[in-house]
Amino acid sequence: MFLWRKTKLQAVSVHHCRLCSLFRGAIEVTGTQSQASLQHGLAGKTLSNARNISVLSKLRTSIRFDVWSIDRTEAFSTISGSILLQARDPAKLNEEIQIAVDEHRCDEAWRLFEQHMQMDGFPRKSVVNNVLVCFAESLDSNWLQKGYSLVEQAFEESKQNLLEKEPLVYLSLALAKSGMVVPASTILRKLVETEEYPHVSAWSAVLAHMSLAGSGSYLSAELILEIGYLFQNNRVDPRKKSNAPLLAMKPNTQALNIALAGCLLFGTTRKAEQLLDMIPKIGVKADANLLVIMAHIYERNGRREELRKLQRHIDEACNLKDSQFWQFYNCLLMCHLKFGDLEFASKMVLEMLRRGKVAKNSLGSAILGFDTADDDDRLKLRKVTEIGSEVKEHDTPKTQVFSIHSMITYEDFSRDRKFLKLEAETKDVLGALLAKLHVQVELITSERGVLQPTEEIYVKLAKAFLDSGKMKELAEFLLKAEHEDSPVSSDNSMLVNVINACISLGMLDQAHDLLDEMRMAGVRTGTSVYSSLLKAYCKTNRTREVSSLLRDAQKAGIQIDSSCYEALIQSQVIQNDTHGALNVFKEMKEAKIPRGGNQQFEKLLKGCEGNAEAGLMSKLLREIREGQSLDAGVHDWNNVIHFFTKKGLMQDAEKALTRMRSLGHSPNAQTFHSMVTGYAAIGSKYTEVTELWGEMKSIAAATSLMRFDQELLDSVLYTFVRGGFFSRANEVVGMMEKDNMFVDKYKYRVLFLKYHKTAYKGKAPKVQSESQLRKREAGLTFKKWLGLS
């Protein structure tokens, strides 16, 4: 029956096509033809026009009858549409599409293309690729999406042989420039899958524009990991000529710099560290930019030992710019602060000031290099300019101008076989990313080529000393710093600013300790510090401390002002000590102190609370109020666990995690990320990851120190999908989508098809337990999310 219907349908279609041709011919004739002549296609006798129209109407009616005699009720509209299209010559339609493309009429080209698809499927290979190029050159999101859907359809119908490599790379570049990072990366992945390997300079340009967005930077790192895997451990023999296209795709230094800089800017530094681990495996040489980017990554992830190893390369590098050099030492300082190594951090600052003072008095200008390889932590002076030469101010990287709203023409793109224009554009984007990284440097600056500490480093060091209760060390550091730096008035010194900040935050004991250290060091200060601390004691009714501070003020020869006496009197009255209040009043009268004395501290505090210019005190107030106190022990244990997981020593990593918990250090996202990726590397440890997942959720519910981020959840999701734990995988996906985190569906689609391709196909078994039913439902839900159902 089916064969008969198919045969009849074909016959009716041919019959209808012939009659349509006759119908057009009948309208064009000026005379009339007989019914017999019309039916046999012969020229002969003529009939009236009315009779011709009547005959043709009958013929059309008979065709409709034949079509509707088929059981499928919707067949008529489909057949009639295809019949009208088949009346046109496919070759002619190809020419019309090409003309529309040449004239950049995308809407007309797409209309004709759709007609050809309905009539005869895909047009000629050259036409298909020219349509893609036309859409790419427009940089219009609507046409780019249509171009990408065309590529998708070609792959779905296994007609990817119609697509050429160059137009696909060109379309991918246009998609990346328009912010459509997922389609752009998918095209590159499809090219690699079909062994149409794009040149590294071409796909690096795509990655450069992708890395300007958060999801794009993550995808860029994933792409380099996937491409780099093909070249690990000398898998590709460079001696074979057949491997030349593949070797031309190998990631280079510029591609890595792009991906790493994007990861840094958008906070995915653990993914960036995975790229760093891959570099020696594929044999990529580091340039100056890569060395500085590595320093930023190690600092963010708390890898102090790696920074110390990197320092040797920084000191030996001869092509480092001034800005790159101080970025490295900014990272080193930040890392020492994370680990609570205040002694070394303060030594670095003091030596910078000391050497800077010497350099300012010398004829040449120099920058500092710190040689920590020696036991005594000596610093060495690096001469970078000759006497009389000038160093450009800050040597700040300039952001090159590049446009995301214009495309290189396809003609220039196809002629540039070495991709020099794309390489230059990639370099411009990299310069823009590095300039953004440069802005984030806040602890060290450069004055005429000399490294100098900023106020931020004093703020962070002061907070760290205060948190650790090291008042004596803080006072010594600030006094030495003032001695090396330009002298200022005693009431505006760094130490006085720190004391005032402590008073305003209610840290009165710390302020008093610092004031004692200042007095014992023989440094004289003004009245305002004693006055503000005395009034703060009076407000909190701390009588004993008030008496002690008054004695210290008398020893230092400080005469307190009338506002302090008024605060003392008020404090005595509140405590119902009328006799004491009268004694204070008499003392004030005898000292002949005028009323309305010094209000300097109140003015200073009011200025800090408002929007006044940010000075040292205001910055310190903000840092203490808003900054988090870091647990240096967590960083130490994270490094230990990371070392074991990289070596595949998971039992040792588990022991270290247990020890970390027993010492009272709470694991954070970095701890769990190292453990999960370690288990994923050795495989078959899905139960252990499940237990860790439960611990993560309980810690996150109990404290704010544990925060789920994209990198951690992505590593957990990968392990659950690999092991077939789809119920928990759906839980992780829901969590990521709730927080608007990017999920690389393509990666998980490939992973699912690799390990679970035959799972959950066909009808469900008639007999299955409740747990089996839930497992199947979870698998089908995940499969549907991937778009595979």
UniProtKB/TrEMBL annotation:
InterPro entries for this protein: At1g68980-like_TPR, PPR_rpt, TPR-like_helical_dom_sf
Domain of life: Eukaryota
Keyword Repeat listed: yes
Sequence ranges of the PPR repeats: 491-525, 526-560, 633-667
TM spans (from-to): none
Keyword list, A-Z: Repeat
Keyword Repeat (UniProt): yes
Signal peptide extent: none
Domain At1g68980-like TPR repeats span(s) in chain numbering: 86-211
Family: Belongs to the PPR family. P subfamily.
Name by which UniProt lists this protein: At1g68980-like TPR repeats domain-containing protein
Organism phylogeny: Eukaryota, Viridiplantae, Streptophyta, Embryophyta, Tracheophyta
